[in-house]
Automatic annotation (TrEMBL):
Protein name as it appears in the record: CPXCG motif-containing cysteine-rich protein
Alphabetized Pfam families for the sequence: Zn_ribbon_21 (PF14255)
Superkingdom: Bacteria
Lineage: Bacteria, Pseudomonadati, Bacteroidota, Flavobacteriia, Flavobacteriales
Length: 60
C-alpha cells in the first residue's frame, strides 16, 4: 500500500488515500473525506512504483 496526498477537485482540501500497489492500473470512484463529493481516481503502477495518478471531478 502507498499513501498518496492530493487536492480534492471540489473543496480544494488536501486529502490522502491508500493505493494498492499490487494492481498495475485502476480507475474507480472514491468520496472525498471532507466534502463527500465523488472523485474519479486513476492510478498506474510499474513494478509497484506509482507512475501516474489522477484525481478528477466526475462532473462534465
Amino acid at each position: 500500500m502507498l499513501e498518496q496526498f492530493f487536492t480534492c477537485p471540489y473543496c480544494w482540501e488536501t486529502i490522502s488515500m491508500l493505493l494498492d500497489t499490487s494492481v498495475s492500473r485502476q480507475t474507480y470512484i472514491e468520496d472525498c473525506e471532507v466534502c463527500c463529493n465523488p472523485i474519479q481516481i486513476e492510478t498506474n503502477f510499474f513494478n509497484k512504483e506509482l507512475i501516474d495518478f489522477q484525481a478528477s471531478s466526475i462532473e462534465q
